[in-house]
Amino acid sequence: MNNIKQKLLNCILSFFCIFTLFSCNSNKQYKTALTKPVEIAILMPSSGASANIGMQYSQLIKMGLSDSVQADVNVVVYDGADEKQAMASLDKIIARKTQIILGPLYSPITKLVADSIKGRDIIMITMSNNPALAEDNLFVFGHAPLKQADRIINYFLDAHYSNFISLLPSGQYTKTVNQVLQDMILQKNATLVHSEFYQDSPESIDKAVALVSSSVDKINEMDDVSTKPVIYLSDDPKNLQLLFASISKYNLDKKAVITGDNRIDIDYPEHINIIFTGSLNMLNGNIRQRGKDIGINHMTFLHLMAYDLGRMTGNYIDDLYNKDRFLARLHSKEPYVGISGSIYFVDSIAQRKYDIIKREGGQYSTLSSQDDKSLIN
Q: What is the CATH number of the domain that holds 209?
């Protein structure tokens, strides 16, 4: 009798399991049948002078999407190298009934695309840092280097460093940066002791570093000086390599504090000690190795941002895209924590958190973190 009951119970359980499995599969198939893939366009340079960097950003955006999105998506990369290419790509983007555009990279092309998609059901998140572009459906994801300069210089001013030196490439923009630095420093009764500008050549760079090194020696010999001079750098990786070679030659990072924005964190064979703005979230996980696997040997802050753009987008899409919900998440004041740091949007403009990072002997540590209340506006 017990055997008969046990067999009957097993039959009932088997039927229930089969029914449940069938129901789950049917619901999933029904849901899939009712929804079309989310059409996502990545609009980055894939031809011309910026083709290499544009393709790297595209790869990282796709990687971030792949790591986070649960919905069915269709991702297509389009060329946004110049206005002509961008407009040709836009015709295809509109024809595909694209819902989300990630990019472009530069402000003029972003403005052109934004004007062309007004009134259409498309959300765009650009890597431009021009706040004037921001609108209800256009989010500015880029970052402003001058905000990082403000963060790093004020960190040292608050720590009572009093002597500053700028070491910058020649040009109108860097002269503007230098004036901003000088104004910040003077407001805290400190001194911009020396401003040195160099030309784009190894000889000019080495000469500039030698002059700065001489100024540093004079400052360190003063009896009333209790802190090292702070040297502010900002340039592209090529010139930074030359700068670091001369800095090593004159032992400048031992006699002074070498600082700048995230761009100065470059790969260099010598252990040059630097302090810069950024986030140590990049050390979590294997993003650098994954970048090298696809041919990106040096991961800059903008590379990290590109990955975060894809990953944030995928997270906010969730398992089923809804435009209103997607926009609500973008407008939320709750920070998105990415490998490039934490951000949220105010009036569709990204507000970024910049920590103070120290690299010494090839090792990284955080000297100061900003809490969410002090995100730069």
A: 3.40.50.2300
Is 70 exceeded by the pLDDT of residue 331? yes
Nearest in space to 353 (alpha carbons), one of 371, 326, 334, 331: 371
How far apart are the C-alpha atoms of 205 and 203, rounded to whole Å? 5
Question: Does some domain include residue 173?
Answer: yes
pLDDT value at 21 more than 70? no
Q: Between the CA of residue 357 and those of 232, 233, 369, what are the distances in Å?
A: 14, 15, 9
Euclidean distance between CA atoms 203 and 30, whole angstroms: 69
Residue 330 resides in a domain: yes
Long-range CB pairs of 89-98 (<8 Å, 24+ gap) are 89/41, 89/43, 90/116, 90/117, 93/41, 93/43, 93/122, 94/120, 94/122, 96/39, 96/41, 97/39, 98/39, 98/40, 98/41, 98/122
Share of the chain above pLDDT 90, in %: 72
The answer to whether residues 239 and 170 touch, using CB atoms and an 8 Å cutoff, is: no
Query: In this structure, how many other beta carbons lie within 10 angstroms of the beta carbon of residue 50?
Result: 17
Question: With 50 as the cut, is the pLDDT of residue 214 above it?
Answer: yes
Domain count, the chain: 2
pLDDT, residue 89, reads: 97
Q: How far is CA 319 from the centre of its chain?
A: 25
Summarize pLDDT for 232-281 with one digit per residue, the tens: 999 988 999 999 999 999 999 999 999 999 889 888 878 899 999 988 88
Residues in Cβ contact with 270 at an 8 Å cutoff, skipping those fewer than 6 apart:
244, 245, 248
Expressed in angstroms, the distance from the first to the final Cα of the chain is 77
Q: Between these two residues, 373 and 60, which has the higher pLDDT value?
A: 60
Range of the domain at 274: 145-279+355-374
Residue 184 maps to a domain:
yes
Q: What are the φ/ψ torsions at residue 274 (nearest 5 degrees)?
A: -140, 160
Helix, strand or coil for residue 255? helix
Phi, psi of 189 (to 5 degrees): 60, 30
